[in-house]
Amino acid sequence: MSKPMLVTLPFVLLLLDYWPLQRFALDASCLPILRRLFLEKLPFFALAVLSCAITFWAQRHGGAVMSAEAFPAGTRVANAALSYWWYLQKMIWPARLAIFYPHTHPQLTGLAWAALIALMMVTIAAVAFRKHPYLAVGWLWFTGTLVPVIGLVQVGTQGMADRYSYLPSIGLFIALAFGLRELATLNRGRGRESAHSVSRQQPQSRPAGASKWPGRLVAALAGLILSACLVATHQQVLCWHDSETVFRHALSVTTGNYAAYNNLGIVLDSQGKRDQAIACYEASLRSKPDQEIAHNNLANVLMDRNLLAEAETHVRLALRYNPGSAPAHGTLCRLLQCRGDTPGAIAAARKALALQPGSPEAHNNLGCLLEAQGKYDEAIAHFQRALGYWPELTEALNNLGRTLTEQGRAAQAVSPLRTAVQLKPEYAEAHFNLGNAYSVLKLRAQALAEYQATLRFNPTNAWAHYKMGNVYLAQDNAAAAEQYRAALSLDPNLAEAHYHLALVFVARKEMEEALKQYREAVRAKPDWDVALNNLAWLLATHADARFRSGAEALRLAQHAAQLAKHEDAETLDTLAAAYAEAGRFPEAVKTARRAVELAQSADQKELTGQVQSRLQLYQAGQPYREP
């Protein structure tokens, strides 16, 4: 946290050479000695220069170095002068500490000039007290080690930072410690030790009547100060209890703290407190309207509220303030995806990747879009690249496993999905997809366990109940029906659950309930050809006239045949049966013959035989009845 100040190490070593090592004195003969001491520390100077160059390049490449337009030279000098005194004040009285202090953009006017002049005067005075060299060393240590982070080269948008004062404060404590040492030895008969040496001396006897009070007073004062610091430290530690606490504390002790508002918004959003998060992001933008990150965060939470127009406003502002923001392009991708603009979303995702090729999130997002387009191989490649950058990205593990299962590669899907639930045991979606993979592999017990885990972490997941019903269906109709009903209690429009519940009732010969569930499936999903076909078949062919309806069967069968473009033998077989039930035998014969042709071309021998036998009935003017 204090690493930027370490580039001043060779200068600190020179200060220590002056005092307490006393390797040179500030007189006319010091230049040759200083030259030798400088050469002695040349490797440290070289490392410091190299570290500065690398750090500056990295920070500038990452966009952290602020421009002269955003932070003019006068503002930097004014902030630096004032910050020295703020650091000193917080060291003496460590109150109102915050994780982030926003830059106030002070002008080089009265107060700043006063701070700058006072800084120079204290420096001159400390150097002038030659009899007390620890004052010069301590003060120059403090001022010198702060130079890399005082804001003359502005990195980031903070005005100052408590973490930068750790090493510099050592200099002030050196001056304080040795100053108190001298104070404690006042009036002692053994004489005052020279401040130019810190070597131990033999204790001397104190003359009778020598006062003990100065030393005792200093000791008592030090004890009180340390006790007060202990209490203050305990109180400050409480402010770091969690992220929400630390950012709320920062807001209570600073003004216009846009960074604290933004980060508090992130915390509240992660807790599902979206209204409060929106309020924090808006407060952050009121303090600093040109923040790309706050606009982007606000756009994301507005999308979660389905406020797409407002979200677009903020994501466009984010991109205006920072056109090269990969996260903002990622948000634009999500927005366009919500609006059904898949090509635009893919373009935005590719832009995000171009800006940040190593972003695992961007690879994951693009993979999801490609999966939705049916480009499974390319999607899998992006999920794998995301995991190459971040092997523990649970979303990419889950998406990879789901896509592999959809491609018929369930055995390969198990590994990433198991890793996802191990890393994030409460990840309900990953448990669900792992259950799907086990179901495909016919691992019934494992599939049920994963669906149960899904419901444990997400009790409102209707699909998990539906999938459990499918697992039970082959062996236990009652258990399957119970799960289908549970799914429908959560989502009455889940067509698949209505359809499979109808299958259970057909197996039980409960036709009224079967018809009811088939009709509900068709209502919920009007273009589902499988449900249309099954309902039409039952209405056209059931042996009990109470459950037949030629007109309804014909309407449903015609719709199913249109969806299949009259190229599916099974659908045409149902349509022929519906024509026959409606008494339209010529159409039944014609349709049945076409069904036979399609079945033969598809080498469906069993279906071919069945349709041919029904065709004979239609030619004889008789409808088909299920046995």
Would you give an account of this structure?
With 627 residues, the chain is mainly alpha-helical. The chain is built from 30 helices and two strands. It has helices at 9-18, 30-40, 42-61, 73-92, 110-128, 133-146, 166-184, 213-238, 243-253, 258-270, 274-287, 292-304, 308-321, 326-338, 342-355, 360-372, 376-389, 394-406, 410-423, 428-440, 444-457, 462-473, 477-490, 495-507, 511-524, 529-541, 550-563, 569-581, 585-601, 605-619; strands spanning 101-102, 158-160.
**Sheet/helix structural class:** mainly alpha
Q: Categorize the overall geometry.
A: elongated
How far do the termini sit from each other?
82 Å
Q: Report the C-alpha radius of gyration, rounded.
A: 39 Å
**Helix percentage:** 55-70%
Mean pLDDT: 91
The number of helical runs is 30
In which order are the strands of the major sheet placed? Answer: 1-2
Count the beta strands: 2
Amount of beta strand = under 5%
Major sheet size, sense and barrel closure: 2 strands, antiparallel
Spans with pLDDT under 50 lasting ≥5 residues? 189-204
Short description:
This protein has helices at 9-18, 30-40, 42-61, 73-92, 110-128, 133-146, 166-184, 213-238, 243-253, 258-270, 274-287, 292-304, 308-321, 326-338, 342-355, 360-372, 376-389, 394-406, 410-423, 428-440, 444-457, 462-473, 477-490, 495-507, 511-524, 529-541, 550-563, 569-581, 585-601, 605-619; strands at residues 101-102, 158-160. By secondary structure, the chain is mostly helical.
